[in-house]
Amino acid sequence: MFELLKAGGILMVPIVACSILALAIILERFWTLRPTRVAPPQTINELWRWIKKKELNGRKLKALQGSSPLGRILAGGLINAKHGREIMKESIEHEASQVIHDLERFLNPLGTVATITPLLGLLGTVIGMIKVFAEIQLAGVGNAGNLAGGISEALITTAAGLSVAIPALICHRYFIRRVDELVVGMEQEAIKLVEVVHGDREIDVEGA
């Protein structure tokens, strides 16, 4: 592996760095964007029980706020529920914007990696071909070893750049889709909460 990296030339260094960064982001986002962590079903079910039994208080609101991103959004609305429907909705939207920002963290760098690594590979290809033509100009086509070295450098960097970019792009699109799905689910729960608090909807406690 080291010999392969060495044969690819200096541009293999940023490509390898990009691959390490992409892998770290992918693993972190897979862990962070788990539905059971972002919007656990037990959070909303427990909240409905608290509301139905009139057990909701400041301590439980604080626990709800720290339980999950969904809990943070719902707690933000409940804290200001007494000021009316519109203020409650604005509080939910404010918390939701911050939660969405957190859910999308590191996705831009991952997208950047997916974009620049093929360009780095292409640059390596260009540099490798320049070396090939420079060798031809100096020594003619008789020195096959030097020509092969330049061509090898060009092909290795291209392959390495694409090998990093393809999975990074796939994961970037996948995470964007997952964030969208999580946001839609949390929006539905927030709307339901507003309707329940203001008497437009009956509480449906799962398993109760």
Automatic annotation (TrEMBL):
Residues covered by the MotA/TolQ/ExbB proton channel domain: 68-187
Main location: membrane
Superkingdom of source: Bacteria
Keyword line: Cell membrane, Membrane, Protein transport, Transmembrane, Transmembrane helix, Transport
InterPro entries hit by this protein: ExbB/TolQ_transport (IPR050790), MotA_ExbB_proton_chnl (IPR002898)
GO cellular component, one term: plasma membrane
One BP annotation, GO: protein import
Protein topology in the membrane: Multi-pass membrane protein
Family under the similarity heading: Belongs to the exbB/tolQ family.
Protein name according to UniProt: Biopolymer transporter ExbB
Source organism per UniProt: Marinobacter guineae
